[in-house]
Each structure stands twice: as C-alpha cells, then as structure tokens.
Amino acid sequence: MSFRTVVIQKQSKLNYKNKFLVVKQENDEKYIHLSEIDTIIVDSISVSISAYLLKELSDNKINIIFCDEKHNPFGELKSFYSKHNTSKKILEQINWSKDKKDYIWMRIIKNKIINQSLLLRKFHSDKYELLLSYSDTVKSNDKTNREGHAAKVYFNSLFGKGFNRGMDVPINSALNYGYAILLSNFSKEIVSNGYLTQLGIHHKNEFNEFNLSCDLMEPFRVIIDNFVYFNSEKNFDLEYKMNIVNLFNNKFIYKNKKYTLKDIIKMYVKNTLESLDNENYEDFIFYEG
Predict the structure, then answer these.
(1) Domain 4-77 = CATH 3.40.920.10
(2) Fold of the domain built from segment(s) 86-278
(3) pLDDT below 50 — which residues of the chain?
(4) 237 — phi, psi (to 5°)?
(5) pLDDT by residue (tens digit) across 163-200?
(6) Are strands 20-25 and 12-17 parallel, antiparallel or unpaired?
(7) Strand pairing partners for 7?
(8) With contact defined as beta carbons under 8 Å apart, do 192 and 61 qualify?
(9) Are strands 37-42 and 4-8 parallel, antiparallel or unpaired?
C-alpha cells in the first residue's frame, strides 16, 4: 500500500527506472519504489521530469502536484484512464437526480458545520452551541445558506472579528495551501473511482475543473483549520508546509476505527459516490488522531 509523500524542493531531475522513481540532485541520486509513493509534490520550478516517469506515475495512480515560484500549488497530473468502467460511471454521474444531489449536499453541509462547532468547543468558544443550532436547521441543498452563516461565525471565532478569507495574510496563505493539498487528494480518489471532478453535486462553476472535489472535501477542511489555528504564531515557511503535508499521514477516527487521513479520504469518497445511488451517506466527524 502506498504511504509516502515525496516533496522535491530544489533543482532536480526526476526519472523512472525499473519501477523506481529516480531523483538526481547534484552528486546525489535516490531511488524510491513507486509502490511506496502516494503523492509527489514538486515544490520547485527548477525540476525536470521525464515523459516516461509521468506515464508510469499515471499508470500507478500516483498523485503529482506542481507548485509555482512562490511555492503555492497550481496544478496536478490526472490520468485519462483510471478505471475499467469509467464511461459507465460518468453516465451514472450525469444522471444523478437533483433530489439525490440535494440530499447529499444537505448531509455534507450539516457534517461540515458539526465539525466546525467541535473545533470551536476545543477552546470553549461561546459560539459552539450557535453553530450546532445551525447544523440542526440545514435544509435540502442548504437552501437557507446555513453554510454561509456558520462560516462567518466560525472564522471570526477562530481568527478574530476583523478576519475574512479574502485578506492577504499568512493565515489565509496557510489555509489556501492546506486546502489545495486536500483538494488534490480528493480529486485523485474521485478519478480513481471513475468519475469526473468537473461535474459537482452543488458547485457548478464553469471555470472550476474540480467542482465535485470541492463538494466532497467540505467536512475535512476543519483538519486544516485546526492545524493553522494552533500554529498561527509560526512562520509560514517550508517547514510549516511540510507539517501540513504530514497531516495526511496522521490518524483520525472514521467508522469507529483509526485510519490515516489518506485512507479515510479514500473510503469516504467511495462511500459518498456510492451513496448517490443508495443514500447511505457516512459522516466524517472530526476527532484528532
């Protein structure tokens, strides 16, 4: 089972040899077996990658994320062919009924707000019960926008009343970085299950290639929020980013057992996509590992 996230942070040449990723840096050469790798983050624009390696990474369903000169994720590699019955899955996805999508979105938002309230409870916020009350009143498709009301209370409680998600501040940079890594993990699992990331159940932005990924990741954002809140005094540097990446190897509770976050995302995505057929949605309630 793949478990490693490989981060490339300086000038390198990446090649493939006999089922190994080969990383060449100056006089150093390292080999990592592809079976061990879950994700590769290319956090430098001074990296060259062979086409053969890209093909093997795609065949082995290894996620590869590219960062720009400011070390922020800007793109990823996705395979055209991820499952033997992809065409069948896409047809099912296109035919998901509005009632089913509205129901699943309601459950996702309810789950998200509960997780937000549990994080606020950790530092005895007086807004904990207010958010719980919002979760109790989420309607089909969240047509009364409980998500938006909860978000304002939630972020102001975490980072102060003057804070908003549009500000150019380190806290938002850290949140955006964490959300981008989270989004990539969800996209990988959606594609692996044979579905299109572009066709969401609620998000419908024509310029967003990851509408479905944005839908499904909502209850998990709190894991990034939790980390950023408790590290808000630290510099948003390479070490900070590596600690965010390592969150995906931490263990959390799902279905009454502990799994790594990567494995939970894998199970959660599969379950949620299946629930669009049988409405057997499984909540992810946030507990620290």
Answers:
(1) no
(2) Four Helix Bundle (Hemerythrin (Met), subunit A) (1.20.120)
(3) none
(4) -120, -170
(5) 989 898 999 999 999 999 999 999 999 998 999 999 99
(6) antiparallel
(7) 41
(8) yes
(9) parallel
